[in-house]
Amino acid sequence: DIVMTQAPLSVSVTPGESASISCRSSKSLLHSNGITYVYWYLQKPGKSPQLLIYRMSNLASGVPDRFSGSGSETDFTLKISRVEAEDVGIYYCGQLLENPYTFGAGTKLELK
Amino acid sequence: QVKLLQSGAALVKPGASVKMSCKASGYTFTDYWVSWVKQSHGKSLEWIGEIYPNSGATNFNEKFKGKATLTVDKSTSTAYMELSRLTSEDSAIYYCTRWELPGYRYWGQGVMVTVSS
pLDDT digit string (tens) for B48-57? Predict the structure, then answer.
């Protein structure tokens, strides 16, 4: 199975500042079709996960452009600029390249 | 609008089975794969498997083969997951989610399953 390793496990951010979350995969997520199959989700407290970023760098519909995704074949970053109170929760990276689809352990974002 | 409405929480005894539902609305049920995801308490997400309602075709995480059975009822636009031979390790929240391009955009509210005698 592809292992997704996130860092840090938690981050505390002052509202208005930016935050970055890293994710590393144990195998390249770059498919021969040129698409990198890494995704980012946010799970707000008591809620279901919501899709933020798909295919490494594409913003899902309705997601503020304060969120952005980038990376290479195995190293990925989610950046949140101008963090707001509504951004609190647990962020997960995940891969949909191959079965079984796997997720990172999550990064908890809190406000200072 | 797209909605996935899951059944209520379940308290089940060790060794028993539980069947949960995921009722879809707001779209053509047979056009999209439905996946199931497990979230153990305070932990990350595990992909269990998926089913294509139109044909009943399934794909599973090897870990959940023999544990999870996926079915659908096209007449009611409902997907089901049955978990068998339950142990405390199966206590978790289970989500259904719809696969589409770009990804798992729509999720059910989750079903909490507690395995306890």
Answer: 999 999 999 9
Which pLDDT does position B89 carry in this prediction?
96
Work out the average pLDDT over B37-57: 95
In chain A, % of residues over pLDDT 70: 100
**Per-residue confidence (pLDDT) for residue A12, from 0 to 100:** 97
**Residue of A39, A99, A105 lying closest to B103 (CB–CB):** A39
- Cβ contact, residue pair A103, B63, below 8 Å: no
Chosen from A2, A33, A101 to mutate, greatest number of chain B CBs within 10 A: A101
Contact in structure between B116 and B11 (CB atoms under 8 Å): yes
Which residues of chain B neighbour A9 with C-beta distances below 8 Å? none
Q: Min CA distance, B114 vs chain A (Å)? A: 17
- List, in order, residues 6 or more apart from A107 with CB less than 8 Å away: A6, A7, A8, A9, A10, A11, A21, A90, A91, A92
Residue found by looking up tokens 């190293």 in the block: A75
